[in-house]
Amino acid sequence: MFSPRAVIDRLRGTSPNARVLAVSTFVGSTGTGLFLASSALFFTRVVGLTPAEVGLGLSVGGALGFAATVPVGRLADRFGARRVFLVLNALRGAGYFSYLFVHGFAQFMCVACVLLTADRTAPPVNQAMVGQLFSGGERTKVAAVVRGIRNLGYTMGIGLSGLALATGTATAFRWLVGLNALSFLCTVVLLARLRVLPAADPHLRRADPKEPPTRAPWRHPAFVVLTVANGVLMLHDTVLTLLLPLWVSNHTATPTWIVSMLLMLNTVLAILFQLRVTKRADTVPAAVGAFRRCGLVLAGGCLCFAAATFLDHVALAVAALVLGMVLHTAGELLQTAASWTVSFAAAPEEQQGRFLAFFWLGSSGKDIVGPTLGLGLMTLAGAGGWLVLAVVFLLAGLACAAASTPGQPTRPGAPVALITT
Q1: d(CA 42, CA 36)
Q2: How far is CA 256 from the centre of its chain?
Q3: What is the rounded CA–CA span in Å between residue 94 and residue 289?
């Protein structure tokens, strides 16, 4: 299980890189938690924007980040993921500080476009950086520890923000935004101490003239299928943060506060079991099985959420929602572990930034189309929308497993995970 003591035990005796990355992740995620809990109110109450203006600015910035993901990934391959990630985090720190001086929609739009471009392009570069800091199975294990630490940081940040939000003053909101900006600048100082493996440093690595050049990621059909299907599985985020809260509040007999309990249950389960699940999906064959189980349990969660609608007794409806959340969280953990393992294995060492950036387009695409499609489905089909979503999750899990299944090489330079055991 994952706990602060388990983190200390796992980090004790590990490489300095792992310890630095853990501290940096905790600092950055705590700052992000401070901001996430207060951003909407900060923009509307302090900056003076309308909800529509906030939504438009964030959508445009997100679209720019989507378009920039692969080009930034290529920069990571050329100059090194750590160097590019340092620049991105510096931009994020400067961007969040800039929010403190925004007055009006035009300024907000300019800052949001730069900041969200850095925000959206950072995750794949971060993953590529982990690939250049660690080798073999250690990558996935470190990724699991980092994700658990990130959840702890989010939880602490959100909890601390509640103390400031209770005052409701503009000064409190500004402090939360400023501390988030400072957290990113602190990560720059910490991450500068990381040391990339010599074989992964683009300035030290020499290409073998006998090796044929690796083709672009979008020229590998299996990798494209994996990217799209994994993006569909990541709709579990949209379900958790958007669809489920609205559904529980408007279509079940349960009190509205049950939403907070379900979200807290998700966080606690993620913190406790992420490491255990990751250990069982740290090879490509194991990840293939995890993808299959992921689609199945996510589908089961959707069926439980739909069933809660037809249960008039509050206790039964709550039980159905809790069971649904347990299944949903299991699917989330399986998808995370399997996608990290397979995407690492599929990305050629010399083009990790480019391949991982392309892989993360599935996540960005989910953020762009997921809310609209999900809400539209629930509006048109009602409880039947959960049944449709269950089938979608089940098929997406099978598609990910099929695209990741080891086979025999058919062409030079094909992604490793798609051709070997």
Answers
A1: 10
A2: 27
A3: 42
Query: How many C-beta neighbours within 10 Å does residue 58 have?
Result: 18
Q: Report residue 324 CA to chain centroid gap.
A: 21
Handedness of CA 145, 146, 151, 157 (dihedral sign): positive
Question: Does residue 207 form part of some domain?
Answer: no
CA distance 300 to 294: 10
| Structure-token pair, residue 86 | 């340092």
Angle at 348 between CA 347 and CA 353, to 5 degrees: 60
Q: What is the CATH number of the domain that holds 363?
A: 1.20.1250.20
Tally the domains of the chain. Answer: 2
* 241 and 157 within one domain: no
Are both 307 and 193 inside the same structural domain? Answer: no
Model confidence over 182-196: pLDDT tens digits? 999 999 999 998 887
- pLDDT above 60 for 415: no
pLDDT at residue 12, rounded to an integer = 54
What is the CA angle 337-340-346, rounded to 5?
135
The predicted-structure confidence for 306-349, as pLDDT tens digits, reads as follows: 999 999 899 999 999 999 999 999 999 999 989 988 887 777 76
Mean pLDDT across the stretch 55-70? 83
Tell whether 391 and 362 lie within a shared domain: yes
The model scores a pTM over 0.85: no
Residues 33 and 8: their CA atoms lie apart, in Å, by 22
Question: What's the CA gap between 328 and 334, in Å, rounded?
Answer: 10
